[in-house]
Specification:
Number of strands: 2
Number of domains: 2
Largest sheet: 2 strands, antiparallel
Strand content: 15-25%
Distance between the termini: 43 Å
Structural class: alpha+beta
CATH architecture of the largest domain: Orthogonal Bundle
CATH superfamily of the largest domain: lambda repressor-like DNA-binding domains
Number of helices: 6
Order of helices and strands: HHHHHHEE
Length: 146
């Protein structure tokens, strides 16, 4: 089973069962964000967490095996067309250089890790319209001279 087939099976079962990402994450003992990312094929789960997802959704062992497989992170599109995903592309285009400048000023020459990394998505009620708060938390990795 490919990661894409796994993803489709999970999304279909999730819709059929009505389970939320929060409910699935609670079964895995992992964050909502990481559980969702693994179910979408961008990360892998340990056997216990993969089995918990499959048990919750009534999916077979082959889905669990695919959840445990290391991902190959390929993107089909250079510029995303989904409006919400495109906004992240737009944010990077508009604010990416600013992030780079401020990170370099505060930390030095290096990058933010996407491996030693966590993220959190929160909803904040606001009388002018609910707010989306996304925290990106990555370890700073300085470039080495040799």
């Amino acid at each position: 089973m490919t990661k894409n087939e796994m993803k489709q099976a999970i999304l279909e079962a999730k819709q059929t069962t009505g389970l939320t990402w929060e409910a699935l994450a609670a079964k895995t003992g992992l964050s909502v964000e990481f559980t969702c990312s693994a179910c979408l094929g961008m990360n892998s789960l340990k056997a216990e967490a993969a089995d918990a997802v499959c048990e919750s959704l009534g999916l077979p062992a082959e889905v669990s095996a695919a959840l445990q497989a290391f991902p190959k992170k390929d993107w089909d599109q250079i510029v995303p067309t989904d409006p919400l995903i495109y906004r992240f592309y737009e944010i990077t285009g508009v604010y990416g250089e600013m992030f780079k400048e401020i990170i370099h000023e505060k930390f030095g020459d290096g990058i933010m890790s996407a491996i030693d990394f966590t993220t959190c998505v929160e909803k904040v009620d606001d009388p002018k319209g609910d707010r989306v708060v996304i925290t990106l938390n990555g370890k700073f990795l300085p470039y080495k001279s040799w």
